[in-house]
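User: My advisor, Dr. K., asked me to get a structural model of this assembly before our group meeting. I'm new to this, so sorry if the format is off. These are the inputs:
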Amino acid sequence: MDTLHTVLNRGCSLWEQTRMPEQEFRRRLGRIREGMKERGVDLLLVYGDSWRFGHLAFVSHFMPKNRGALAVIPLEGEPALVVQEPSRNNPFSKTLTWIDEVRSVGKFAQGLSGALETRKLSPKKVGLVTVREQLNIREWGEIVKLLGGAELCDCNDLMISLRLIKSSAELALLKETSRILQETLSLFGKEARPGSKECEVFAALDLAARRRGVEDFRFLLARSSAPQIGLRPAGPSALEKDEGVLVLVAASYQRYWVELGQTFCLGRPSEEIKKNHDQASHMFRQLVEGTKAGVSPKTAAGWLREVPSPAARESMQSYGLGNGVGLDLTEEPYLGTEGTTEIKPGMVLTLRACFSGGDCGSALISRPCLVTDSGVESLVREEDDLISVGD
Amino acid sequence: METKAAKESSAFRKKVAALREAMRRDGLSGLLFYSGGQLSMLEVNAVLWISGVLPMGPHTGVFLGASGEASILVSLPWDVGRVKEKTWIEDVRVVDGFAEGVAELLRRGGIKGELGIAGWSFMPAAVYQGLEAIPDIRLRPADKLLNTLARFPGEEARGAIGRAAEMADIGFAAILEKARVGMPEHELAAEVEYAMRSQGAEDNFGMVTASDHSHCTHPPADRRIQPGDVIIAEITPACEGHFIQLCRTAVVGPASPLLREKFAILEEAMEKSLDRVRPGNKVGEVAQIMNHVFSSYGYEKYCRPPYMRVRGHGLGFLSMPFPEIVDENEAVIEEGMCFVVHPNQYLPETGYLMLGDTVWVEANGARRLTTTPMKLFTVEG
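Assistant: The format is fine. Below is the predicted structure of the whole assembly, which you can bring to the meeting.
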């Protein structure tokens, strides 16, 4: 699920080479080049910014801190990375990627020009991955001008297809992020009390996650006392006795994101809170049962039609029933949508049953799951009960 | 006594009135305020400025028509409740395709002609091209208009800015309290974050680096703090959309005479540059005097890239007096501006050292907003 972006990716920033070795990137590069050859592309440009950088991290492991970066991948020879940053940041940026040639520049066209000149390249057909979608219009214009008469073609589909099934190294990182996030979320019970401010609880969880080495941490909550508002960032108001609180946390570790969501009650849950949680549990089980290898994302959520409350159904659709997760917090496939991507073993998905609103109450269960031949396997310990805290 | 909501409503009415006047003057049929998902501390956020909503999700826009009619377009359907709670704009719409949503809004309103885009410099090419394809509409960047109107935080922001300054002080105090030998850099950064977040900081452009010789500050890694390390911190909490920046240096264990001698140059540069922060002076003078101080000690080459360039800057989201304090900036300092002045400097003998404060310009000069002393700190370790 989308969350509020922060102005700087400021958590623990490094490349753990034992967990994500250079060979992994070399293998990816080989597969990318096969795709480039099939499409007749002789240069691939992959852009990412601090808000969304999954494709860029897939090729480089680089994570932009507050601006953006562009990977330059020729058909042959070594790739280059162009980072928008002051030149004094260059040595640090180099520690985050396996790519040797890191060009720190003010403008992307300047860095791309240098990379092309060094390689004596004048590409005829240039593949683009999230360049037009994310790069600002001014810099886009300069890049198009630099590339002259080269044919430009969209290669987003190539990168999406390569990222669907997670490798063993990726799965290990997703499991590690899941472990950290579960430990972090379990602290909600210790930190949240009637009278605690939302921002104090968030700060405590943020500290716990960052101490465990995450690069980024996100926190949204919704309160049963204000169901019309739904999930939102933490604010200064105090939590109240006996209210239900929906908590959604997300973190990235070594670029790999996981989302986890749970409903808590601060004291004795009312019948309505219990009923809403039971409904969410039931829906989550249906989601788990419907998500199988070989089915389409739409079919996996077919059971939603049978949810009796139109308000709950609409709310669940708006939050999304689930999606792929990995180098982006949300990525293909998106459950419940008309996508063509079939669910396959080796995918990691966030499954989510979340609804909120004046007409349907509120509840949340969200977990990362690995798709296997026989169904889905949760990457975290399953907590099906409504968790009462703060007594 | 005027309530907070009434004050806010009055502030937005003033903005709308100024924009309507500008649209009449510039021949614009409407203005589109745009923000993507990426937020920047160094820019006025067009959507937050006009609507009161900090954007979440891939695309958010506010359309303001020439007669003052307004709509807000959001990408996340589940975020509508928050948006409605935060904004004065009554027409809140969820759009799947952003450009298509804008096109539909303009078509229904019968709006044709020139559409000013505030937030143009951050607008992705695909969105811009989608808007360009709307029939009978011509696009015109309107960032200058926004930046002209958003140069001052305004008196109504003093409370929030003051709270942000308190948070920054608390953030740095956490370094002095928590830093110890053997602690990973990222844990210390997390403690700073905790100290400020638990006080309600909405965000933080924060970097904490510990090293025996830093070349610049950067987000933390896993290096463990060592005796004699120099900890440099850039701490930038936000409160109600206003940022404050504090830059300081602390040494683990006793400071060497060399370090004290070199840090004194930063202190001199800070004192002399703050003296130049006066209404009527040019922004460039602040940078020039800093560079003059470092040059007089033989560090002229280190005042230029790749070592240094910017000597301070405006702080964004809700206001931005000017982007950068550099020698060439001809902009004139005015009363009511708010910006950070930082003679941070790489010195070959010590590595990168930091000292900087956010100031509010008053009639007689700069008023520092934080209370952390401007000195070299030591931590026991």
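One thing worth pointing out at the meeting: The first strand of chain B starts at residue 30 and ends at 36.

User: Perfect, thanks a lot.
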